[in-house]
Amino acid sequence: MKIKNSVAFVTGANRGLGLAFAKELVARGASKVYAGVRNPEGVNIPGVIAIRLDVSDPASVAAAVAQAGDVTLLVNNAGIARLLPSMLDPGLVEAAREIFETNYYGVMHVSLAFAPVLKANGGGAIVNVLSDAAWVAAPFLSAYAASKAAAWSFTNSLRIELQGQGTSVQGLHVGFIDTDLTHGFDVPKVQPSDVVIQSLDGVEAGVKEVLADTGTRAIKASLSTEQAAYLNPETVA
C-alpha cells in the first residue's frame, strides 16, 4: 500500500518511536494521522489528530475506533517496560501482568478492533512494533521480553488470519532505540527516524518482517544455528 493519502492510526504517538511514526507519516503525505494517547490534551503535533486511548481498556479502544472509521494503516507502537534486578525479584509476576496488559493484550485489543475497519476500507496494513528481546531475553528484561515474544506469535497468526481480507501485517523488530525509554543505557542505539523509515518503506513494499538494526539482524540470523543467540547471549552483547 502507499503511505501517501493513507489514513493512519498510531498508538503511543506522544513521544519516542510513536512520535517519529506520526511525523514521518505526515511528511509522506498521509491524508490523516491519528495519535492514540492517554492524554490528548498533551499532544500538539502539526497535522496529527489526538484521540484518547488506553490500549489495555477494551471500552477505550472501542471508543477510539468509533472516532477513526476511515483508518487504512494501523501502527501498534504503545508499549511499556519495567526493569527488575533479577528474575527472582518478588515483583516479577506483578510486573509481567502489567506489561502484558499493554504489550500483548493491548496489541490484541487494538488489532482485532481495527481489523473490520481496515477490511471495509480496502484492506490496508498493520505494523506491530516488536523487539529483538523476543529472541534473546536478558533476565532484567524477562517480563518485557516475554510480552514481545507473545506479541510476535500473535503477529504471525494475525498475518495469516487477515491475508484473506487484503490486510498486510508487518512485524517490526528492533533493539535499543534512542528514546526516553532507554535513557541511561550505555548500549548501541538506533535513531527512531531510521526505524520508522525502514518500517514505512516496508509497508509500501509489502514486507512482512522488518529487522531495523544490525544487532537484530544478527540475532535473527543465528536462530537456526548451533550458536543461536538465545543459547549464547554473550555472542550478541
TrEMBL record:
Residue intervals passing through the bilayer: none
InterPro entries in alphabetical order: NAD(P)-bd_dom_sf, Sc_DH/Rdtase_CS, SDR_fam
Gene3D superfamilies in alphabetical order: NAD(P)-binding Rossmann-like Domain
Domain of life: Bacteria
Protein keywords: Oxidoreductase
Keyword Oxidoreductase applies: yes
Family: Belongs to the short-chain dehydrogenases/reductases (SDR) family.
Protein name per Swiss-Prot or TrEMBL: Short-chain dehydrogenase
Lineage, broadest ranks: Bacteria, Pseudomonadati, Pseudomonadota, Gammaproteobacteria, Pseudomonadales
